[in-house]
Each structure stands twice: as structure tokens, then as C-alpha cells.
Amino acid sequence: MEESYGLKDILISMGMVDAFDVTMSDYSGMSQANDLFLSAVVHKAFVERSLERGLEKELERELERRLERGVEKELERELERRLERGLEKELERELERRLERGLERTREGTREETREELERRLERGLEETQRELER
């Protein structure tokens, strides 16, 4: 697709008159001859788009985006799985440590209770023996 637009009339209507008049224009910075002026201003646009190439490029970009998102999602899922497995293993280890500590405390408590019970029995036995002796 190609288009050309003459802008001379539009620019003159906007007040840019001197640039198009040989007696009024001043382009001395570009030429010492002082005979330069604008005869026309043209805006030309050219657009070429191959529908097939454009669709191919768009499909490639979309495929890349989907692959990137898919890879990112897969990586996120794998990271979550690893974190969950790590947390599960850590929780299992912590439970095992607590169970072991609890069992040790129970054993110590049982030993302590047993010693206290023996001391009580011994004390009672001594008291009974003393009462019998006193009779």
C-alpha cells in the first residue's frame, strides 16, 4: 500500500508562507546563493505487509510465549513439589526427634517414678517395722 500527500497548501494555511516564496525565504544557512525556496512538501507513506509472513511471525511469537509460560509453570510446579517433599521430610525428621525425646522422657519418668515408689514402699516398710517394734 502506498500513499502520497501534498502538504504545501496545508502548511501555507497554517501560516508557513515565507518558506514557499523565493523573495521571502531565508535558507542562507544552507546556501549563500539566497535563491532557495520550497516548491512542494510531500508526505509519502509506503506499507508492505505480507499476510502470510505476518501470520507466521505472529504464530512464532505466540508459540514462544506459550512455551515460556509452560516452562515457567512447569518449573514452578517442580519447585513446589520439591519444597513440599523437603518440608514433608523435615516434618518427619522433627516428629521422629520429638518422639525419641518423648520416649526418653517417658523412660526417665518411669525410672524416676519407680525409684520414688520404691522409696515410698521402703519408708512404709520402715514405719510398719517401727510400729511393730514399739508394740
From TrEMBL:
Q: Where is this region: Disordered?
A: 102-135
Q: Which Pfam families does UniProt cross-reference here? A: Serpin
Q: Which SUPFAM superfamilies match?
A: Serpins
InterPro entries registered for this protein in UniProt: Serpin_dom, Serpin_sf, Serpin_sf_1
The Serpin domain extends over: 1-57
Q: What is this protein called?
A: Serpin domain-containing protein
According to its UniProt entry, this protein's organism is: Dissostichus mawsoni
Its organism's taxonomic lineage begins at: Eukaryota, Metazoa, Chordata, Craniata, Vertebrata
